[in-house]
Amino acid sequence: MSHIHIDIQGLSFAYTKNKPVLENINLHAGEHEAIGIVGANGAGKSTLLRLLVGLATDFGGSIRVEEIPVEKRTLPLIREKIGYVFQDSDNQLFMSTAYEDIAFAPRNYGLPEAEVERRVQSALEQVGIPHLRNKQLFTMSGGEKKLVSIAGILSLTPDIILMDEPSIALDPRNRRNLINLLNSFEHLKLIASHDLDLIWDTCSRTIILDKGTIVWDGPTEIALRNEKLLQEHGLELPLSLQRR
Predict the structure, then answer these.
(1) What is the rounded CA–CA span in Å between residue 110 and residue 104?
(2) What's the pTM?
(3) How far apart are CA 26 and CA 217, in angstroms?
(4) CB < 8 Å & 24+ apart, contacts of 66-72
(5) Can you list the alpha helix ranges (DSSP code H) found in 22-167?
(6) Fewer CB atoms near the end CB (10 Å): N or C, the chain?
(7) What is the pLDDT of residues 137-194, one digit of tens each?
């Protein structure tokens, strides 16, 4: 087995007592997998991703990332392995310019400034935004902020990428750039999204969540063509598969 994997066993979580958000989640995700996580609002998609990077640790069951248990004492190690793109970019960006924000984490890990520069420039080019290098974050559109957030994750060269609604606020050209970028990422990625066409274009495996439980885990091509399955769980066929 590759060292790049995630294992979840019996995961349960509630923000308030007696109102579970996730119940008995069991999941193995291995290297080179591209996994879409879909479901109606409130299904638990964002919560699942947040737990994987330890944004809450008071869960039941176990999460292991590359055999490292997710718990308070291991969070620095976990966050070296996983890059997490928030749904709301304003929750992720906090420096003054794109360059400074993307450079923050590599600098925080003590990398030499020449390596920081190399990583920032590479990330900007991967995402297709070298022209935003010195732009002030407060002047950016929502789509530009999303791309800077993604570049910030890529600058850490993670083994695993988690993305929560990555196509929100992107125009068609940048959405296509995002799809190409995701398809070029060689390791493990989990993408939570309402954009089922994005999932269709980037993920070979799809997990459907409904009321905090996994109701489907299998090939994307089967799940997203199954109109009855999707409708039963508050979803619709991808636009590209709907009859004109």
Answers:
(1) 10
(2) 0.92
(3) 10
(4) 66/3, 66/4, 66/5, 66/6, 66/159, 67/3
(5) 45-52, 75-81, 98-108, 113-127, 142-154
(6) C
(7) 999 998 899 999 999 999 999 999 999 999 988 899 889 989 999 999 888 999 999 9
